Amino acid sequence: NFVFDDNRTHDQSLVSISLFKEGAFSTAPINIPLHESGIFAWRTVASSLKDSRRFSGPFVVVKVSQNSVEGLSLSVQPLLRIYNKSDFPLELRFQRPQNENEEAAVVTVRSGDMVDESTGVLDAMNLSGGSKKALMSLALGNFMLSIRPEMSEHSNLSHATLFQWSEDITGEKAVRISGVIEKLNYNIRKAFSIDSMKSSFSSLSCPVSVDGQHVTDLYFLIHTLGRDVPLQPTNGTRVSGRSASVALQLQREIFIYPTVQVYNFLQTDIHVLLTDSKPENTRDDNFGLIGKEATITSGSSAYFYVNPAMFNFSVTLISYGSKSKAANSGDWAKRMQKQTARAQFLDLELEFVPGKFHSSLRLLRQEKGLLEVALFTRYTLQNTSDYPLLCTASGQKPLPAFEIGKDNINLPPQNGCILPSMSMSSWFTKSNKLRISLHDEKGSEAFIDLEALSGFTEFFLEIHDDIFPHRMAAFGMSLQPVIYGLHVSSQVVLIVPRYVISNESATAVAVRQCLVQDDIDGLTIEAKQRGTLQTWKPGKKREGNYFDLFLKKHKNVSEDSLIFIQFCPKETGYGWSGPICVSSIGRFFMKFRRSEDMVIDGINKDTLQDGKLKQFASVDVVQENTSFVLHFTKPPKVALPYRVENCLNKASIMYFQKDSDESDMLGPQESEQYAWDDSSLPRKLVVRIVDTPALREIKIDKISPWKPFLKMRSRLNLDFSFSNGLSSEKQGFDDSFELRVFKIGYEVYADGLTRVLRICEQAENPKAEKIQRPIAHAQFRISYMCIHLLDKGQSDEMLQSPSTILMATFQRVSADSVITDRHKNMDVAVYSVNVDEKWDGASFGSVFRMNKLQGDALNENILRIVCVLNSSNSSVKQVHYCSIILQPIDLKVDEETLMKLVPFWRTSLAPAGTPSTQFYFRQFEVHPIKIIASFRPGRSQTSYSSSQEALRALLHSVIKVPEISNSVVELNGVLLNHALVTFRELFLKCAQHYSWYVLRAIYVTKGSSLLPPSFASMFDDSASSVLDVFFDPSDGSLNLPGLTIGMFKFISKNMKSGGTKRYLGDLGKTVKTASSNALFAAITEVSDSVVKGAETNGLNGMVLPASIEVC
To answer: Where exactly are the transmembrane stretches of this chain (predicted)?
Structure first.
């Protein structure tokens, strides 16, 4: 019962605590001041509610603490608690020392339950004799404890089984345990959250007899935690200050555990047997194995009650019928004696007969203190694809056909494993190199080195059958951290389908691969279902031009042919959509048209509404693990990327995508949403005013103010007699219109994330903005700035002074802004940035700084950002030009510093659904970044949180980052044109762009022959073109004179294929051989086949970022 006194001031606030049981007893209140932190014990005085009896009650331990996170904390605990953490219900026998002939008190504690001293003392009120004295001795700590399992648990045995009492323990002096359990370093449990805690271990054995004959002993581990607590007087008021009592009372927690816990992390059920070292103790009827054997299913654990000092250990794989060689705990202890310090764990190999395969064994002691044994394999293979796979060691001879038949799904572990669809299997062989093939079909093989794999990769298996062209099975492979309750060095090798179609619409849809399946219906995906995309191997094609031949050796072989697919609704009369690249990340829109000569129910097409003649859909390509998942939605849940508005009063317009055979008509004062017919064609819209020769190609990706529809040359040659068969009886022009046609123009503006093409006369242009702003100039300077990142530490005390983790210093920070009537020009420069480690024991002095050999020679600012914004009243921020350049830097990071930064990670504080600011970037560029990187791995700490352990698993199990010393990492730049995105989208896409190059650098550092699978595009319909720009690795300078501007045009001119290409390798030497300069560009992401939008301005910005052309 808690009672707070609100009438007192903060410095005198009190809380009164009393124990009571309704209708039985209550104790005198204890007054606890809340303004003083500390921990104290009181002996309560209990009064019976039925009569006037008063007697000494149980002890109460109270802790008052304050910290900056939780605030005021008040904890009330008993003096003694005993926990039963075993599988058996236990009988606890309490006796007073030197009174063994006196009647004892017996308490039954079920598995997982607890009994404390306060319950025992209060229950003693209704007892008498020796049992009452024994329970009252719990409060003084003067007692002996013995245990035995309860008989009722084994009453169903056909023989008389007797569990006898164990020896007595007093808890005052611990009996030292020996064996391997003593050699392992114990991760101490902070049950009382103080540093003065005492911890001890001992073991108890309970003899087991069957039919009067001793057969075995059940051993239990006793873990005692204790601390000395200052004892306060019994008058209920705490004595504070120097007059505080120095008498101490021992507070204890006693945990009763089994001695060994075995975890099965194998993908098969196992039978585990732990026996004593003396074989003669085992009976033929297996009664001697009570508590010594168990069948453990995959992913679970079992307790064992063996002598922790010496036992034998053996495992049987039930699925394979293979038994391991017996291992002896004494040999484990001898092996650990050779180590100079007590280890956190011990890793061993458990060999199976006939010795051709093995599993791993890890011994450790966690917070429980008992010996924990984990069985696992280094790798676990998981197949979530639709194909059953055969996995063998790469150096192994091919297996006979009868062993790998379609009906056989259980290979001997030494031969590998067969992975049916949606299954997992442990990899028992010692080889880390996999040979993967299809189990039930003939085809090619893939070889994967698991040691060289970092993060993820992809592989393809060609199916050899009578179908031509051959089918291809595409897979993604990644390393996943193992999520077990125990930390083991194991990874899951996840094999997934590379391309997945998810139909999220209400009707079925057909999918086919372009240029391969043109004459077939393709794969049908029902509504709300998923399916694996069936790919086909395209025929051989010769190199189309000199450029392809020139760069052939720099291509990634697996990317010679990008896969494009088409969709078609399973509705009568609709045709196929334009092509979509399956490896282009982002959202794409498509259009479905009805056939021209189609008749539905006898009604001609002309009688149908125009909205019935075409439908729109969206495809969101998302990378999930290593799968490209294409989410098909019809109709789209978001607005289409374009809209066409005809604001003319009398004239209709016809418009179509350049080089496309499909066209649309729009009447006067009408508007319509629009999406490209074919994303591989030029992203230009050809617009014609019907019954006139007025024709114009318009880049509707480019936001532009009102412009005349007719160019000057077109005005001089205008002939209104031209009709081209497009005359309409409803459309007639008088002489005034022939004059007003010269006033017709167009504009492109942004309405949210939709670009709107508006055809109108100049006088009727409400979107035209006349903005007059005064010219203003602002300058901002900081000569020196220092930022400290502080760590409060592990202590809960509020008064602890925080320590510094990192210190960042900025020198000569400048910001200049010039505002004109058309633009806002901003230039931000930082001359020097240094980030230093300041915590004790840091591996590196400096974490981040400019590279001394390359950056200082240029005498340039380490960071420069140039931005030109258009002055506009639109809700979409229009960025005319944005350029970011970072000079070569040194980056040195150690794992311990990363772990200290994990607690600072926070998700966005913005409410869910908050709209992000929308930007239109006419040109956005991030220059190539060169990093001289160093990384030093660390060891796992017992104090790490779940978030820190998750980061460790990512670094060591998934990516497997090696120790890096001064390795050069080159992050290619991004050159983006006419992009309409939110800031969040831009940030995530750039982060994904750079993460690919970081992962590739890790592969290169490790010397791996693999490369991470790349994407073909990131900016989908949000940008007209994207280039991946980088410089020669042999020269770190970015500020180079004499750049050959023609390189962009050379690539643009020769890139006529519809796909996107990524060139890898040392392209710098190749370009230098071709007499180009050191700075060059290679295409990796192109939303269409034209790269003209990034020709000159981008390169000018790369070389001279301060020189901005405002047009």
So the answer is: none
